[in-house]
Specification:
Helix content is about 15%, strand content about 50%. By secondary structure, it is α+β, with helices and mostly antiparallel strands. The protein has a 30-stranded mixed β-sheet that branches.
Length: about 625
């Protein structure tokens, strides 16, 4: 066996000797011809070589060439340095065949952006080719040119690219996109069927810190590139992914864990996702989407259905400043609304937003030509039915906004507390609210707000004041009105409210509160911009009229006239009062003159008992 070793090594030695001698015997012109043929065989088109060509034997026989250029016009590939590593066995017969080609710092430049046509042409060239090639790309770049500007999309790419003529193609490695490393794994088989309009199996996988994406399906080029298969996209922090893509999340909180899986049809005109399962911040919904890119603006259409949605991760909508004391004066920017059109439908069995809960909700979001409409068609909420609509559109002085709310037979404490931060009204009732305005900020819109508000309710309480207790005490001791009158509840059997809003001022034209023991009437104005109150009212203690009692006289009779038919009532005590202060801390002050008149010490100053609010005989 030892005698056979020299014999077996002899061909190898001859090859190495010939390879070492070749650079001395072969001219550069012949080397240039050889390397040009090898590069054309691998790329499918002839190269332009502007640099020197040399041959090296160690560490492996290879042709080294500088300044290579492929293509002209829309797509060009320039390679500063390339190394064509030769297959050793063909050298025994005097033939040069590439084992693989190493490209150092190649740059692919696409003029005017990414075009589908050159891509399709290149894939079809590979599908019809009968050669094999393996490329090793080191520190490559992808550049988009627009006139005289150059946009480096991928500044660094380390890839291994291979194809087997007319059969298979694969790309594996890593690229840097928007400053983040992205691992790339792409494979396609049966490329030959593309020539006859068929679909080629393909698999794509991208993974990196911003996101993970996988596609498994087929692709075809007849009639335009189309991919059909299962698409999966996931992100550990969607907010960071959106920022990485140059997009801003619509809310200040939330947009964490995200995943999407769907059957997809992808093309240059858009994408269609069916049977989609979307998960965001623990909320799971199912449905489908349609993205169209063939118009003036991208169009997104879709519908989603969810069993349970929890909106608490996204925080609460705030239209106040950072301190919460004033309306936000930040300029409203609606420029992004004109970038796309949206038509989405959402249905959910249960939706939680803070302390509020909506059931069997049907909602929609429509954005067209910069005009946004967010609507809740109908939802079961606060033990009743709730509807809402928000309209936002650009205006010459900023933005135009209108809000419409309606609720029927709802628990007023929950509804008013969740919607208006006013939880002082208990009971069951209905309300209507509509308001709109224009301005460059929320503060400006509120300052010019126009609209109306109406409410009716029954069998509840006013929280924060026990008007019956206060009136009963003042009836006996009129001058004991000092101190804090707040605390307790005022039960009522009926409440009615009518209000109009003009240029930011809410005018309370009618507020009646009634029960078997008292009547309350209130009117006045409230500046929505300043959040202050300026109301005057009258509170009355009433009792059922006895047979033979004379009907009430004077001002008191006007308020008792609101009593239910068939239940005549007498006023035993009447107290005018005023409401001042702000929305958060209103101050209720009784009329001091009425209390003085009611006091026995002041009675000699008045000739008529009715003048100080007493309609019963003086004791």
């Amino acid at each position: 066996m030892k005698r056979l070793v020299p014999i077996l090594l002899l061909p190898v030695a001859l090859v190495l000797f010939g390879a070492a001698l070749a650079p001395k015997l072969a001219s550069e012109e012949r080397l240039r011809t050889e390397v040009a043929a090898l590069l054309e065989h691998a790329a499918g088109q002839p190269p332009r070589i502007d640099g020197p060509v040399s041959f090296s034997i160690f560490p492996w026989p290879a042709l080294e060439v500088n300044e290579i250029r492929f293509g002209e016009g829309a797509a060009t590939l320039t390679v500063p340095r390339a190394r064509v590593v030769l297959d050793l066995l063909p050298l025994l017969t005097g033939q040069a065949r590439a084992d693989h080609i190493e490209l150092d710092q190649p740059e692919l430049a696409l003029a005017g952006g990414v075009d589908i046509d050159p891509f399709s042409t290149g894939v079809l060239r590979l599908a019809s080719a009968k050669f094999n090639a393996d490329l090793v790309v080191t520190n490559g770049r992808l550049v988009l040119t627009h006139g005289g500007t150059r946009d480096v999309v991928i500044p660094a790419a380390d890839l291994r690219i291979g194809w087997r003529g007319g059969r298979d193609a694969a790309i594996e490695g890593r690229v840097v996109w928007r400053g983040e490393p992205i691992n790339v794994d792409l494979a396609a088989s049966s490329l030959g069927v593309l020539l006859t309009g068929g679909a080629s199996p393909m698999r794509v996988k991208l993974s990196g810190p911003p996101f993970d994406m996988a596609f498994d399906g087929t692709g075809k080029l007849a009639g335009g590139p189309v991919a059909n298969g299962t698409l999966t996209v996931a992100s550990r922090q969607l907010r960071q992914t959106l920022a990485w893509l140059g997009l801003e999340a619509p809310t200040a909180q939330g947009f964490g864990s995200f995943s999407l899986q769907a059957q997809s049809v992808l093309s240059g005109q858009g994408a269609t996702l069916s049977g989609a399962r979307l998960e965001l911040d623990g909320n799971v919904s199912e449905g489908g989407f349609n993205l169209r890119l063939d118009g003036a603006r991208p169009v997104i259409q879709g519908s989603l259905a969810a069993d349970r949605l929890d909106l608490s991760p996204y925080g609460e909508l705030s239209i106040s400043d950072a301190a919460g004391d004033n309306w936000s004066a930040e300029t409203i920017d609606l420029s992004r609304l004109s970038q796309l059109d949206v038509d989405l439908r959402l249905s959910a069995t249960e939706v939680r937003a803070g302390t509020g809960r909506l059931e069997r909700m049907a909602a929609s979001a429509t954005l067209k030509s910069g005009r946004l409409l967010l609507a809740i068609g109908e939802a079961e909420a606060w033990n009743g039915i709730f509807r809402a609509a928000l309209h936002v559109s650009p205006a010459t002085n900023g933005a135009e906004a209108r809000l419409d709310l309606s609720a029927d037979d709802v628990a007023l404490a929950g509804a008013m507390g969740d919607l208006f931060r006013m939880g002082r009204l208990e009971g069951t009732g209905s309300f209507r609210f509509t308001a709109g305005g224009t301005g460059a900020s929320i503060a400006a819109i509120v300052g010019g707000l126009n609209g109306s508000f109406s409410l009716s309710g029954a069998n509840g309480s006013l929280v924060g004041f026990d008007v019956g207790r206060i009136l009963a005490r003042l009836e006996q001791r009129p001058l004991s009105a000092t101190g804090d009158l707040r605390g307790g509840r005022t039960p009522y059997s009926q409440i009615e409210l009518e209000s109009t809003i003009r240029t930011g001022i809410a005018t309370l034209s009618r507020l009646h509160v009634a029960s078997d023991q008292l009547r309350i009437s209130l009117a006045g104005e409230s500046s929505i911009a300043d959040r202050d109150l300026d109301f005057v009212g009258v509170a009355q203690l009433v009792s059922a009229a006895k047979t033979g009692d004379a009907p009430p006289q004077g001002a008191a009779s006007a308020y008792v006239a609101g009593a239910a038919p068939g239940t005549p009532q007498n006023v035993s005590f009447e107290l005018p009062f005023i409401v001042r202060g702000n929305w958060d801390q209103p101050v209720v002050l009784p009329d001091p003159q009425a209390l003085i008149r009611r006091s026995g010490a002041a009675r000699p100053l008045f000739s008529k008992p009715a003048a100080y609010g007493s309609v019963a005989p003086a004791p």
